[in-house]
């Protein structure tokens, strides 16, 4: 590995016109064009690593600009130099004396960090000839710990506590790995009930999902209470009393409003309300959790939780009952490891956020590692699944009987098809050129 | 005003090579090149508005990219259309269905929002022929309230409560305005004790400051405890027992470390410890506040507090004893109004962050308004002052006897000298061209 110097980094703005069909629509994001900032790094011996971060269309060019600003930290580095002091490398990217001002560790710059580091982890896993989850599972606990920046979280989790968790996780690890290879990791689906879908489409999609083994369903809520009641009733009727229902407001409410609104939906027995309010409102989530606990409804959040310091506080304040890590919002695998270990210490289940473009492909690796080496439990745990855009990936997720089957190809499942990248580049790719031609102009949101 | 349509927006990357002299150096930002993303908007009748956000050099180009992404919301709008529904306009900028994903309301995109809205406020004040503070002071309380987005803060401050505070603030307002015009708003200085300054320079600057009426001094700490002890002792000896000393760690510590370290500096009787840990760590600041209260040391933070939701929680959790608003980190005047009103309700004094490039020029307007119309108190209140780079502004701050004298020129004091902007544009301005010429190459950090 020692000869492997990273000599090139390129980044592309890849957008899919999903708003045309209302895929991905929710109470706050009514017309997303699912997109990625797509990073490719290349070594002097011809190995490539692929990384991405997910976006909703407009603004992806800003993330590209941030990736370019970070590229100087990567180009010229040897892979072994990075992974032998991954904590130090992580700190370089996230704590540059000038650049941290425009973060720190949040928003655009953290999304860019995720894209770049996801590419580095992909490169590392490929160089070892393993899928990322397997690289993590086989890694010495001390080495794993050396990838984590513990700054600002030692009051909740010390390095020694983290190591102890990982050492304990070594027990029974082989059996759990075999179990995963055989049965996969349980999933739930969000594909049936986007906010913009009419009832008929909801019913049809739900029927199809039930027939292929899905038992856990998430419904988008928060725009109109009467609509929510009707849609939740419809889904609950279709999935029956034993099916699992989750609801997701995508930050639509203030604290008081969240409690009132969700109380009105309690009769449909949702397992959780997801993102009831601002992702920054730790104390607000704590208040909502407390108010909804008597109704048996938990609070889930995390897809817009921007770093480990925020997750630390959500856990300290008992502000969430389900931790939704995201493979592209946090600072890549490094920061996700910190969150998995904190969640384990606080005994809160991790149920990853997925969907978008590539989020399922990436996050499956992390949750497999969580089960095999950290939590060792499937209680109240499942990984989100959305059936969009997988066809653009070289190693798309494999779902069998509503379970994620562990990927076998080396890497982090981040590589996209060259053809897909080329066609969807914004604005010059042919998909966008066609949409912007006069005949198609009338379509909403097809261009930013 | 109705004819005033905004027809143009331009943005420039303006950087000053302050790292050459260690100005602005602290425990986390060792070599800042003080910079701005500088926005100019122009109306069809030739009026201009100037806005900026402060940065530390590298990454300013990312903020520019974000400003360009926001420009579509501004160009083509009439000024009266904006100010007649400023809350709605604010929401458009901060909650675009696609773009909010890369924030929301934090980091790069919020800094860009600040730059753009600061220009709009400057334009508004100029169109009324008033300095911004006076525009605010004269404004009907209901109109002021209509500029604020209360989303996510109604559990701490309702619209009615905010209005009541402003109505109460009308009493005695004229006298307080006269008092400010005569005596100015009290200031403290950070210019004497940057971390990179040797002791001899500290002494000399402190002597000069004392001779011109300064009595309140801030010292940068956090890199080395023995150095901190020596420097604090030196400053305390020079300013005497009645002088006010503040210390600032710029986020250097974890929670436990912050308590231990500051306890060692308690003998020098600092009024506050500023930014002891991560700006995102509300519960951490609360723990530090609690531990230091018996020592009579308060906690101050805010310059990297990214939005009103974070300030709300800092107040709810009694996590800070001094609220340090920033004119460019939050979403311009609109979001700062929300924070001033929340601070008033929670009875915590506001002591603004300033310095950088233009921060003193801008924030003086906000703190004048706070005194005249909101807090009506000077107890434990003062505004930061740093004596750098004012010469690049058309209406630089006027300090008299360690007080900010209210600006009289129309606008938000945001306009820079054309010559300064031209010479410091990065990388093409002549200042940077010279620094990058072979003869100067050896200098550290002169180019990003």
Description:
Chains A, B: Keywords: Lyase, Magnesium, Metal-binding. The structure is a homodimer. Residues about 440-448 of chain A have low confidence and may be disordered. In chain A, helix 13 links the parallel strand 8 and strand 9. With about 450 residues, the first copy, chain A, is α/β, with parallel strands linked by helices. In chain A, helix 5 packs parallel to helix 15. The first copy, chain A, contains 17 helices and twelve strands. Chain A has two domains: about 5-130 and about 415-440, Enolase-like, domain 1 (2-Layer Sandwich), CATH 3.30.390.10; about 165-405, Enolase-like C-terminal domain (TIM Barrel). Chain A starts with 5 loop residues before the first strand and ends in a 13-residue tail after the last helix. The first copy, chain A, has a five-stranded parallel β-sheet with strand order 5-6-7-8-9, with helices on one face. Helix content of chain A is about 40%, strand content about 15%. Chains A and B meet through helix 1, helix 4, helix 12 and helix 13 of A and helix 1, helix 4, helix 12 and helix 13 of B.
List descriptors.
homodimer; alpha/beta; four-stranded mixed beta sheet; disordered C terminus; 12 strands; five-stranded parallel beta sheet; Enolase-like, domain 1; 448 residues; 17 helices; TIM Barrel
